[in-house]
Fold these 2 entries.
Entry 1:
Amino acid sequence: MFTSRREFLKSAASAAALGTGMSLASAVDARAEETITAVEWGGNYGNEMKKLAAKQSDVKINWQLHAGGALAILPKIKATWPRPGVDLLTGWDASWQAIAREGWAEPVTQDRVPNLADIPRKLLVKDSAGSIVNIPRTTTAYIWYYLEDKVPFQITKIEDLLDPRLKGKICFPVPTLGNNLQVVMMALHNGGDERNMEPGWEFMKKLARSGNIGRVATTDVDISSSLTSGETCISMASSSGALRVGRQFKTRLLSKMDKQSGFRAFVLQEGWCVLKGGRTDAAFKFANFAISPENNAEFNKAIQGVPANMKSKIADEAKPIIFNNEEMEEYVYIPDWAFLSSQLDTWMKRWEQEIAPLL
Amino acid sequence: MRAARSKLLLLLPAAAVFVLFLVFPILIVLNESFHTFEPGRIGSVEGGPLTLANYAELFQPVYGQYFAQTYVLAICSSAVSIVFALPIAYCIARTEFAWMQKAAISAIVGLMFLSSLVRVYALELTFGSAGVLAPLMSIIDIDTNSRMYINFVILAGLLQYSIPMSILILIGAIKNLNPRLTEAAMSLGASALAAHLTVTIPLSMRGIVSAFLVSMTLGVSAFVIPLILGRGRILFISNLIYSRFSEVANYPSGAAISIVMMVLALLLILVMSRLATTLERA
């Protein structure tokens, strides 16, 4: 094969040089493009975030989807802690409280996320050490809405949910979905609040006995599937889901109803948390990229949310869930999220013991 | 002595796998069930006091209802599946044509490969309150929103698994049965029905009990079927366990329910085995 010793050495040297070059090139690639694992919601949230990620090349992302609500992944993280295999985790007010209590979040600072400067301070959640745990990207509302063509009358007050004409037509979220805001709302209407839930549970029992609940939803997808398939026609859900259903069906959002009606809007924020022990720099880098004014506007326009970045443009479609100061006072209730997240077990048991048998 | 030692050595790898992947995880679940849960935290409190509260809670009548609901539907589906599976299995086992037997067994095994989600959603799209048959149900005055109807749809979902499984188990049991015994009963004047009731069924009792228990196991541990077809209104024990572990992160409570469920299942197997032995002797 080789005619001389010199030729053999020349070929060997060339091969070694080529190998070294290739390994150096891959090392440079690895530095230029770090791979992180991010957990995202499915549907248009995931699709739009992937589109956004494709616009940058600094961070490569291995996407995973939430299976169920945002809290469902927390036990899995606990089981694998301190190596959860997740760098960037999407969540909302309720999950931030649990993560703050567990001390899992890498502290968020403006040095690491410069675009945090344009996010309202009020949206930032802190742990017991005073460190910020979340990077908000969307503000949204948890509201009641219904398909106008399917409901035989105009719903004006919460007591209308007991109307026999709505038999089997309500898709009701289980307490673990939306942190039981649905029963908190009933409590508020009947003189209670999140710390005094008895009036809410009493109303809930009446609703369960009425036979109007056709499905109990455990995920957001359950709600949109149930409504769009015609199984049910009224539910309480995140405004993003409501606006999305509204693109195909004539819907009425009960987001700006007077207090006497009993329907309240709960404003909440969604975003990211960077978990300790992983590729935190790359995760912060991507989160910072995604909450820049343009990118945050683009993402929220697609998911029908309100951008958390104050410099981002708000889409017209999201206007029903934008509240000015007066409207915030009149229509919105901001619960004590930390308290809510600590009550979930108690409320879920109460649901199993007192409500589910009546359905 | 040496032969016995060799046998023990041969069993060792299987026993090790059994201990590592079944006994050890169950012991961890058992241990977890005695721990304390702090609301708002994930899982049990590390170093917290041990408690029986997670078990005491299950003595509330409402949890008895959940267990009863799960076991009644699972027992019903197992019983119905035996009723349907036995004649089918008999026909397949006794058919004269080998190709027909092969085709039937292949079809049943093929059915088992169909995704559970596809089967469940097929039932939902057919029998759900917005399903294809919903207008027909409305005409014959069946309330598709009633609890009874939802139970019926869940039962149909369970049968999708238990019937093919029971057929496969019963084919083996019937094939092992000497056909001349039934023929002898008939030649002595017994009708075909009487011959099957007095000869075929009693002699197939072990197979019937096995099919019943396997169907029962599938029914009791069903998760996706009640989750989707139950519309969140009918909850099986598996759904409660999932909720405790995954949604509220109360591991100790989820572990306690799991242990109680396992103990009940073992008791049921014991009772069924005793019953089968008694029936065989009779």
Note: Chain B has two domains: 1-25, 61-281.
Entry 2:
Amino acid sequence: MIEFQLDSTSGVATYLQLVQQVHQALQLGLLEPGDQLPTAQQVVGKLAINPNTVLKAYRDLEREGLARARPGQGTFIVGTLPRTNPVAQARFLASMAKWLGSARSAGLGPDDIEAIYRTAFRNCFAEGVA
Amino acid sequence: MTAVLEASSLGKRYGRRWALSDCTLSIPEGKVVGLVGPNGAGKTTLLHLGVGLLAPTSGSIEVLGGRPADGPAQLGRVGFVAQDAPTYAGLTVDKHLRLGAYLNPSWDDQVAHHRIEELGLDPSQRAGSLSGGQRAQLALTLAIAKRPELLLLDEPVASLDPLARREFLQTLMEVVAEQGVSVVLSSHLVADLERTCDYLIVLVASRVQLSGEIGGLLASHHRLSGPRRDPGSLPATQEVIEESHTERQTTLLVRTDDAILDPTWTVKPVTLEDLVLAYMGRARDTQPPRRSGLKVLR
């Protein structure tokens, strides 16, 4: 069974953090179909969050076809996500390192670089968000 | 949706001083409600009126469809933990439970003992020698073992250390998950409210400034920043809650259900703390201080 963690400084809504952690666990192979997710009681007993937040996260996972609630038993993983491709990961890490090196030699500091990254990241994923 | 607590023009006067006046609000069922506001806003008075420790001077209040403290049945439906979680210093933990069982017709002894065991409290220890966190947990245990439909908690974690606070809220959230009880919780600690509450009420000088599902409130408020401009030129659907200007820049917190299309704005989401501060600040700036003793700091 996986254990949820919360990052209260991330600015990401709590239920979304739970959803993302299940996604990550699926991508890393830590969760597989048939595995049970912790009950709302178990999660709130540990994280001291509102039970509705957990239920909302689980509903999202159900909508995505990744989890299913079995009445009286709990919520179980039923779907899979493609595993993160380690080769692709290494390739993009290398090209990112190269890009960072050239930004640095162009005289950009850490703050400049982070601002560029954030803007590019936002632009890339902002479609459909006001 | 039915209301667990409904107040209409509710007021409470002590001598010449109104602790709460003309308060109208409705709290829906099945929520964990965070009640925030400055000291003196009337939060404690409101909770005391809700549990029936006080009678209204004016207006009316209904709790779970009945009059507060109107007979044993009504008393049994509402659990209350007062500020600083009072317990009887000279009584042991076990005697508190026996007292609770004796006084409450709906008492669930199994829940009570299970909780005490889980908390690791020694039943033979006197409440006076418990730590602040343990005392708060004991008071909460008494309130939940009577199996209420509504729990009213007046700043339950204000005096606790961070670990005791977390443990208290863990217990509270477990109870919400297990029993489906509605909760109204007053607190200044917005970070705690952010984790535990799904409904927010901002109360300033007896008035509800803001009330609603936290998710919806966060989605309908935005922080806009851009070149300096007159907030009067904004579309009518955007209500300005907070504004600040420098010579060149304008920063606004607006409420709107529509998308913000103006490309000159940089739009950022707001946090619960932003919302609480903005509405408390706006209420302070638009209302004259009600009491001469209340200083307005700018």
Note: Chain A touches chain B at residues 6, 8, 11, 13-14, 40-41, 44-53, 130 (CB under 8 Å).
